Amino acid sequence: MSRLAAVGVLLAAIVGCAPGSFWTGGTQPGAVLYHANPVLVPAGNPEWLWENLVDVVDDYFPIEREEPVRVIGGVPTEGRLDTFPAVGSTLLEPWRDDAANSYEKLEGTLQSIRRSAVVRVLPAERGYWIDVAVFKQLEDVREPLQADAGAATFRYDGSLTRVVNPVGEEPIDEGWINLGRDAPLEQRILGQLLSRLGAVPCR
User: What is the distance between the alpha carbons of residues 102 and 89, in angstroms, rounded to a whole number?
Assistant: First the structure.
């Protein structure tokens, strides 16, 4: 590659793919950075937006509940989509896309990981804000599998666990430890949705 071409590629990556930006049409640029979350989508038809949203999310999770965007009296309402938790894929399941990178895939192989998602669609003046939240949890096992040491003794770790002031939409489930948000998978879902809507993010 010539020096001039290398400079051009560098400038395109810095200027043309600002974090959170996206563009419409044609082929995609060559750099990938970051999609804003929530991201503003200039969609005029809420039913079309919702259908694409559901079609993207159900590729990753079984959907538990839908509250689509509705227009009541000329005013659009907030939409929300909740999913059931899905056990994370392993290295032996390369066809599953719930692990956004090789680290997540390896982690799901070595430990019991599961994920769930909450997607909110908020009406805005020029479209809709789409907020994708994917939560990751680790199974809380009392002891390693096949371990029998100490099995005959009394245990005191099964008392009631109380969670005070949970953070945001983060799920609280007995037997699972919250690991926070899965930002790489959120980015993958947002990128796929933007592509479906014709608002292709910088890549």
Answer: 11
Evaluate whether 84 touches 61 at the Cβ level (below 8 Å): yes
N- to C-terminal Cα distance for the chain? 20
The yes-or-no verdict on residue 56 having pLDDT over 60 is yes
Task: Using CA atoms of 193, 195, 197, 198 in order, give the dihedral in degrees to the nearest 10.
Answer: 170
CA 107 – CA 75 distance, rounded (Å): 44
pTM: 0.67
What domains are there in the chain, each with its CATH number? 39-141+171-197 (3.30.530)
Tokens 């909110």 sit on residue: 120
Q: What is the DSSP letter of 61?
A: S
pLDDT tens-digit map of 79-125? 999 999 998 888 888 888 788 788 888 887 888 899 999 999 999 88
Residues 6+ apart with CB under 8 A from 63: 54, 57, 81, 82, 83, 84
Write the CA distances from 195 to 35, 116, 172, 183, 199, integer angstroms. Answer: 12, 22, 33, 18, 6
CA nearest to 50, candidates 29, 25, 67, 33:
67
